[in-house]
What does this fold into?
Amino acid sequence: MRRAEGGRRGAAAPPRSPRRHRARQLGRDRARSARALAGAAAGRAGPPRPRRHGPPAARVAARRRARAGARRVKPTAVTFDCWNTLLREEDWHEAHRRRVDALLHAARETGARAEWEQASAAFDRAWRRHMELWVDGVASGAREVAHWAMHELAALTHGATFELLVAHFEHASHSSRVVPLDGAVETVAALAQAGVPAALICDTGLTPGRVVREHLARLGMLDGLRAQLFSDEVGVPKPDARIFRAALGALGIDAAGAVHVGDLRRTDVAGARGVGMTSVRLRAVYDDPAALPEADRVADSHAALRALLGVG
It folds into this structure.
């Protein structure tokens, strides 16, 4: 029961003090005025803004890359990496098996006693040596790998049998179903139609430049690449500036307006940046996780690449 109802139930409340009543009324009027002023100010300033907290650095970087990727590049020329950029091997393991078979046959032909497991291990060690030299900027290929593997098996490293082994190593990619990346043929054709000259800058492994040209011709891309620069022919692999400059020289183009497209940060991105080209990393097949500087642009497919280059 409220205190104003003290005494007998239903009795009238005592009269209010006029001074106290006026003070309460004045307080209510002031509160209404304050709310009205606040509402008017809010109407002028717009809806209240949420408190902004700085986003994490990774999110900021991702947004910047997205905005940068949305902007088109207008190249005066485009150079391409080969493997996992224009071409890929569908069955590298089959090519590996054929090379080991050829190595074992050659070793036995020259009098060495070896088993398949020994030949496979010798080939793998020779391949790793090739890869280590590649990282160090030294070009090597099928002949060197065959020599190292045969030497380990105590087999002859010269003569007709050895030369036949080198040829087997070089052409084994024909058995591994070399195919173009989805949209790669269209990208090369679109550049040619737009009048943008294109070239190939390719680090060769066991498959030399002349065999890669056979694959490109078979797939209808060779004519769209005005120049083809291969590490086994130039003498140095990427990121050496000499192979990039050789490609630019063959096209008659300055580096400043040219774009290089590849999948590896160490060779493609660093090499292009080293000569002043714009770099695009294509991650359609292989998304390079190396902790090295990112490319100027990143594309997830050849369709996205064509849009980025303004030719699709």
Notes: The beta strands are 77-80, 87-89, 178-180, 198-202, 227-230, 258-262, 278-282, 297-299. Confidence is low (pLDDT under 50) at residues 1-27, 29-54. The two ends are 82 Å apart (CA to CA). The first strand starts at residue 77 and ends at 80.
